[in-house]
Design brief:
This protein is mostly beta strands and about 190 residues long. The protein is about 10% helix and about 65% strand.
């Protein structure tokens, strides 16, 4: 996964220097509702905050852009008689293609189609009996799965080259991964 991230970073810097387009780099935080698709059984939904989001996007023209985002988070899921408890650590790299929709003179959100890859490490997988005691343990799992999704983003100028972006995003895995509904805030810098 480190090789994937380094490759993405190299492409970004090459692209930023070689294309005469507006390029932005930013950092963000998000509130997420996660649902882990576990092959052994169900899991609880988890609301958590992700504090590591790096995003790069470049406009292809006034109303079209592409983006790359790297996200890392970890969270715990509680066990029950029907749900698998586990500690989850994941990193995702997503690429998006977006169009701007001018809904009003002042409201022009970007809508992006997203595809990406998630690397998930789940440890301490277990369930409990009706009394809350450990019932069964399961092997740790490490999975890499593809995901697809949609996002809607609206940006606001804070300064000449600094924007505040608000985004609503939904990602779903193509396999046993993490389903994610999130609201994120990004600060981006135009270079």
């Amino acid at each position: 996964m480190v090789k994937v991230i380094l490759s993405v970073v190299c492409v970004l810097f090459f692209h930023a220097g070689s294309v005469n387009a507006d390029s932005y780099f930013g950092y963000g935080v998000s509130a997420n509702n996660y649902k882990v698709e576990d092959p052994i059984g169900g899991t609880e939904s988890k609301t958590d905050s992700a504090l590591v989001h790096f995003i790069y996007y470049s406009t292809l023209n006034r109303n079209t852009r592409w983006s790359v985002e790297v996200t890392n988070d970890d969270f715990s899921l509680d066990a029950s008689t029907t749900n698998i408890g586990q500690e989850v650590d994941y990193i995702s790299v997503n690429v998006g293609y977006g169009k701007r929709f001018a809904l009003t003179r002042l409201f022009k959100p970007w809508v992006d189609v997203i595809g990406g890859i998630q690397n998930i490490d789940a440890t301490g997988r277990h369930n409990v009996d009706a009394g809350g005691f450990l019932n069964q343990t399961f092997p740790n799992r490490s999975e890499t799965v593809f995901n697809v999704g949609l996002s809607a983003t609206e940006g606001f100028k804070l300064a000449d080259k600094v924007d505040l972006n608000l985004r609503l995003m939904y990602l779903t895995p193509l396999g046993d991964g993490i389903e994610d509904l999130s609201f994120a805030t990004f600060i981006t810098y135009k270079f």
